[in-house]
Amino acid sequence: MDVIEIVKKQAVERALKKGRQEGIKEGRQEGIKEGRQEGVKEGRQEGIKEGRQQGVKEGRQEGVKEGVKEGVKEGRQEGELDKGIVIARKMIQEGFSLDDIAKLTDLSPDDLQKLGKP
């Protein structure tokens, strides 16, 4: 092998080595970029999933609170109505007029008719 061939061979080896290093560097950068994109995508999906779970949990808690409030309110209204009916029956027994009973109990005359007058 003569000197020119040796120099060419060394130049090719240096070029290969440099190309390999540049390729590794470029490949690493591309890999990092792709990895970030995949990480962001996976992170977003996990975040959405976790957010939904938290939202459902919070929604249930709020729903229970609202349901309890509504239930208490409805229970009070029914209790007031029941108490009004009891009072109206006593007033009917005492001989009050249906108009007076309706004014005092907030029951409608139709409701009082259903209770009946002795």
Question: Would you spell out the secondary-structure blueprint of this structure?
Answer:
Layout: H1 3-93, H2 98-105, H3 109-115
Descriptive notes:
This protein has 118 residues and is an all-alpha fold. It has one domain. It contains three helices and no strands. The protein has helices at residues 3-93, 98-105, 109-115. Helix 1 (3-93) runs antiparallel to helix 2 (98-105). The longest helix has 91 residues, at 3-93. The protein is rod-shaped, with a radius of gyration of 43 Å. The model has no long low-confidence stretch (mean pLDDT 87).
> Helix- and strand-based class?
mainly alpha
Number of helices: 3
> SSE string, helix = H, strand = E?
HHH
Largest sheet: none
Overall shape: it is: rod-shaped
- The low-pLDDT segments are none
DSSP, total strands: 0
Oligomer: single chain
Domain module count: 1
- Between the first and last Cα atoms, what is the distance in angstroms? 134 Å
Overall mean confidence score, pLDDT? 87
Name the beta content range.
Answer: under 5%
Give a short summary of the structure.
The chain has 118 residues and is an all-alpha fold.
What would the keywords be for this entry?
3 helices, 0% strand, 118 residues
